[in-house]
Amino acid sequence: MKIQYDPNKVKHLRRIAHLLDTSIPIPGTNYRIGLDPVLGLLGIVGGSGDFIGGLFAAYIVVEAARMGLPSNVIFQMVGNVLIDSLVGLVPAVGDLLDFTWKANSRNIALLDQYINITPQNRKANPLFVIGITILLAFIVLGFGILAVMLIRAIFQF
User: Fold this and answer.
1) Predicted pLDDT of residue 2
2) What CA–CA distance (Å, rounded) separates 110 from 113?
3) Model pTM score
4) What pLDDT was estimated at residue 118?
5) Which of 42, 90, 103, 118 is the most buried (most CB within 10 A)?
6) Whole-angstrom distance, CA of residue 34 vs CA of residue 25
7) Cα–Cα distance between 88 and 6 in angstroms, integer?
8) Secondary element (H or E) of residue 24
9) Cα(151)–Cα(157) distance, rounded to whole angstroms?
10) Which one, of 77, 86, 84, lies nearest residue 100 by Cα?
């Protein structure tokens, strides 16, 4: 199945990454944060904020796979989401990481790098896209469940 590079889709993915990683300027600095760390802080009990951020991160990766990026690039993207999710489980450390590790921006940079060095028409393997979707669903849901279990164990409820 041929998938064409869609500039509007890439623009949409860039907007999502910007919203999650760099949409909020910190006054008096050149540093920016996004909604991802804010969602993480707001969803401290139950990990709901990290779960929502993980869904958006997974969406970016799945769309990149649908565009036909090679599997090694997609696995790098999955690795960025995995690091964000793994460390996100650790209270306080995970929230600090959300302010510094901008997985979505890293994934958009990988997408942009690939788009700039390849022709516009790519062939996406539908089975690969389905497999990546399932893998990311397990990652996001699994870490959401682990976060809930961790919170329950800590607060014993």
Assistant:
1) 42
2) 5
3) 0.77
4) 59
5) 103
6) 8
7) 32
8) strand 24-25
9) 8
10) 84
Stretch 131-151: mean pLDDT: 81
- Helices of type H across the chain: 7-21, 35-42, 48-66, 71-88, 93-100, 103-117, 126-155
Tokens of 52: 């929502």
What is the C-alpha to C-alpha distance for residues 81 and 85, in angstroms, rounded to an integer? 6
Q: Copy the structure tokens of residue 13.
A: 């993915």
What values do phi and psi take at 143, rounded to 5? -70, -30
- Give the type of residue at 87: V
Q: What is the pLDDT of residues 26-53, one digit of tens each?
A: 999 998 999 888 877 776 555 667 778 8
Q: Which pair of structure tokens corresponds to residue 103? A: 């997985």
Tokens read off for 156: 């014993």
